[in-house]
């Protein structure tokens, strides 16, 4: 019988709270420690699970008998958290993005390579039922070769944390959102990006709030990735993913409806009630158990990062960029 995984949660913010609940919901994890620089947050979340509360990464990683950590911190802190987790010899689920610079990715890659633990990156879309169905349909070949993608996410929340708009903390819509887009496109079409161009909107004193990205893929596909945030009002998020292939079109909308159109007709599936974060945590537990199922690791995190960095370079240099390896 699989043993309970003793989990430490680094960051008691939006995702830390959600991941703690999802982890416990799988029946495979016990949340034993929570760390947050905001002591009130750390104690509040820890109190819900009878866990210990800590002010920082190092304190949490010193907790005895810890098996795994979830890293849900501002992006510029992901390397420090990964280094502490590696020193503690625990399994790591680091939320996207893996980190925000190539040098950081090199360091995390070296830590992971020297470790015999699981290093998973939180590319949640791979665990959403509608995206998994899309991946199966595309891999099954019934649509033929995909040649075009439109990937759009337009959101507006007053409550977004301040660091989301602080470039020094790793904020901005390229680092916040494009990693998801780059990862899910590469995963869906099983091909990697060969070129990226990008235009951004960056208000004074802020990281960019909008990015209009074009990307080309080795398979021949071209993608348009449109990402935008509003910060002074709340709105229903608008997301739309459309993939066109030789023999059909596949769409996923913000209601989590998958629609596949071919010459034979239209297939429509709703996955609105699917517990994607539970599936992600379940996959992490499975990887810790050594179940052999593939999961997004450091290489996937690095690939998405290199595309995001190419987008940042393209935005400042006014030219197409080739993502580094
Ligand atoms: N997978 C998804 O769908 C998804 C969705 C949203 C966010 N995310 C990712 O989750 C991660 C966390 O984002 P969030 O939205 O929860 O942010 P958040 O701001 O809500 O949470 C981050 C927490 O870290 C704490 N913190 C800041 N500095 C710290 C330090 N030095 N030591 C300890 N704690 C510190 C903050 O007080 C805050 O509570 C990011 O990587 C983000 O991109 C993923």
From TrEMBL:
Residues 5-123 form the Gfo/Idh/MocA-like oxidoreductase N-terminal domain. GO terms for molecular function: nucleotide binding. Pfam families: GFO_IDH_MocA, GFO_IDH_MocA_C3. Residues 131-250 form the GFO/IDH/MocA-like oxidoreductase domain. Coiled coil: none annotated. It comes from the Bacteria. InterPro entries: Gfo/Idh/MocA-like_OxRdtase_N, Gfo/Idh/MocA_Oxidoreductases, GFO_IDH_MocA-like_dom, NAD(P)-bd_dom_sf. SUPFAM superfamilies: Glyceraldehyde-3-phosphate dehydrogenase-like, C-terminal domain (SSF55347), NAD(P)-binding Rossmann-fold domains (SSF51735). This is Gfo/Idh/MocA family oxidoreductase.
């Amino acid at each position: 019988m699989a043993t309970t995984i003793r989990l430490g949660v680094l960051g008691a913010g939006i995702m830390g709270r959600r991941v703690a609940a999802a982890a416990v919901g799988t029946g495979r994890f016990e949340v034993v420690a929570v760390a947050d620089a905001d002591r009130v947050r750390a104690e509040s979340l820890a109190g819900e699970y009878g866990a210990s509360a800590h002010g920082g990464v190092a304190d949490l990683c010193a907790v005895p008998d810890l098996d795994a950590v979830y890293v849900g911190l501002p992006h510029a802190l992901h390397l420090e958290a990964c280094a502490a987790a590696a020193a503690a010899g625990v399994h790591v689920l680091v939320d996207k993005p893996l980190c925000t610079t190539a040098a950081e990715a090199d360091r995390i890659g070296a830590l992971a390579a020297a470790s015999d633990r699981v290093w998973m990156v939180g590319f949640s879309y791979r665990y959403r039922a509608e995206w998994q169905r899309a991946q199966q349909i595309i891999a099954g070949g019934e649509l033929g070769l995909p040649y075009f993608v439109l990937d759009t996410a337009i959101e507006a929340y007053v409550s977004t944390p301040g660091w989301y708009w602080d470039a020094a903390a790793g904020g901005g819509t390229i680092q916040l959102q494009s990693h998801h887009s780059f990862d899910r496109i590469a995963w869906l079409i099983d091909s990697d990006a060969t070129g990226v161009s990008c235009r951004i909107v960056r208000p004074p004193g802020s990281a960019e709030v909008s990015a209009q990205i074009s990307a080309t893929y080795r398979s021949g596909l071209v993608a348009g990735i449109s990402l935008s945030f509003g910060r002074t009002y709340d709105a229903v998020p608008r997301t739309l993913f459309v993939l066109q292939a030789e023999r059909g079109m596949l769409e996923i909308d913000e209601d989590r409806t998958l629609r596949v159109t071919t010459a034979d007709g239209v297939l429509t599936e709703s996955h609105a009630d699917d517990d994607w974060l539970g599936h992600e945590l379940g996959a992490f537990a499975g990887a810790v158990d050594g179940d052999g199922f593939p999961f997004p690791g450091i290489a996937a995190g690095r690939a998405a990062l290199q595309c995001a960095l190419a987008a940042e370079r393209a935005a400042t240099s006014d030219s197409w960029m080739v993502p580094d390896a």
